[in-house]
Amino acid sequence: MKSDAFEPKIVAFCCHYCAYASADLAGSMRIQYPPNVRIIRTPCTGRLETEYFMKAFENGADGVLVAGCLEGGCHFVEGNLCAKRRVDYTCEMLEEIGLEKARLRMVNISAAMARPLADTITDMVETVRNLGPSPLKSNGKLKQESHS
Amino acid sequence: MIVAQRKKIPELLSIVERHRKVLLLGCGTCVTVCLAGGQREVSIIASALRMAAKLKKRTLEVEELTIERQCDNVFLEQAAEATTKADAVLSLGCGAGVQALAERFSGKPVYAGLDTAFIGILEERGVWAEKCAACGNCVVHLYGGICPVTRCAKHMLNGPCSGSREDRCEVYADRPCAWQLIYKRLKEIGQLDRLKETQPPKNWRPSLSGGCRTIVREDHRV
């Protein structure tokens, strides 16, 4: 498969109160973002466990995006801060496994930030596109230089 | 409870390198509470091992199971069938659980997936601290319920070392001085007079120094 034919599959966990609402707003505002993301709505990013990210990668996701509320603006007070720590922990584990940690990213988006959400998704898609398909897939190859 | 922490994935992968089909066995007791070897951790580590093996082009099948308790033969029956089907068992139980498994399934390789650390409690979310050294000769009643053997870095039995700074331990500045805690506690319960009693050197014979310890209760034997 040619590298330019690769379209990353990104799983995006979006919290109900902010990131998912901003994706909704992006739709209402006709703001385009790459169709590579599969959005999963969660009540709060604090609900997400390391397990969720690991299963996403194991089942073929090229990248995982976690989008929660702005820090200090979580509907459940500190759910997004919990998620941040879990994402950091998972990144460490991805490095132990030998997978590029850049494939997992957490961002903070408010319900009004439709344009930044679209930009974030575009940036994430490009990052993962540059990394190539997940090496866990049969056509994937690990990019060693991406480790930092 | 017994507190443990997981080994790193590369180490786990090397531990099971001789095998193609491994049972990752969690324990529903202490290590579940300290978030090291319960059902969720089994799921996470199993995924990690499968992915790591795939990246190394190794064939590794990881089955997942968590039983109620690994350190009790009665509960080990729950793992009998899955153990039979696997080439080896990678236990996410404590050291006692791992050895109970190895004794119960004598023909099966059993490995430890966790580093068992200490007997302790959850101090705050995500922080566990050692509270008991299992020395076999408990003296906590003399010190207001605070164990200087475990919690004083120098195991002082007759007062502080005088090195503490602002209630902090001289050796581990992020930990409270055990003797400061003992003083406060004894004062609170009106037993400061206990500090006037001089304690003799501790009897370490019942501790681990003599090797594996056993307790025999004749009244319970059959």
* DSSP, total strands of chain B: 7
With helices defined by DSSP (H or I, 4 residues minimum), what is the helix count of chain B?
Answer: 8
Q: How would you spell out the order of helices and strands of chain A?
A: EHEHEHEH
Main sheet makeup of chain A: 4 strands, parallel
DSSP strand tally of chain A: 4
Strand content of chain B: 15-25%
In terms of quaternary structure, what is this? heterodimer
Strand order in space, largest sheet of chain B: 3-2-4-5
Approximately how much helix is present in the residues of chain B? 25-40%
Beta-strand residue percentage of chain A: 15-25%
Low-confidence stretches of chain B: none
Helical residue percent band of chain A: 25-40%
**What does the average pLDDT of chain B come to?**
95
Radius of gyration of chain A: 15 Å
**How is the main sheet of chain B built?**
4 strands, parallel
Quickly give the structural class of chain B: alpha/beta
Distance between the termini of chain B: 29 Å
Terminal-residue CA separation of chain A: 27 Å
The assigned structural class of chain A equals: alpha/beta
Please mark out the parts of chain A with pLDDT under 50 across 5 or more consecutive residues, or reply none: 144-148
Summarize this structure briefly.
By secondary structure, chain A is of the alpha/beta class. Chain A has helices spanning 19-28, 50-58, 79-97, 114-131; strands at 10-15, 37-42, 63-68, 104-108. Chain A has a four-stranded parallel β-sheet, sandwiched between helices.
Overview of the structural elements:
The complex is a heterodimer of chains A (148) and B (222). By secondary structure, chain A is of the alpha/beta class. Chain A has four helices and four strands; from the N terminus they run βαβαβαβα. A four-stranded parallel beta sheet of chain A has the order 2-1-3-4, with helices on both faces. Mean pLDDT of chain A is 91; it is low at 144-148. Chain B starts with a strand and ends in a 34-residue tail after the last helix. Chain B has helices spanning 9-15, 30-33, 39-55, 73-76, 80-85, 95-104, 148-151, 178-188; strands spanning 2-6, 21-27, 61-67, 88-91, 110-112, 114-124, 127-132. Chain B is built from eight helices and seven strands. The mean pLDDT of chain B is 95. Chain B is α/β, with parallel strands linked by helices and 222 residues long.
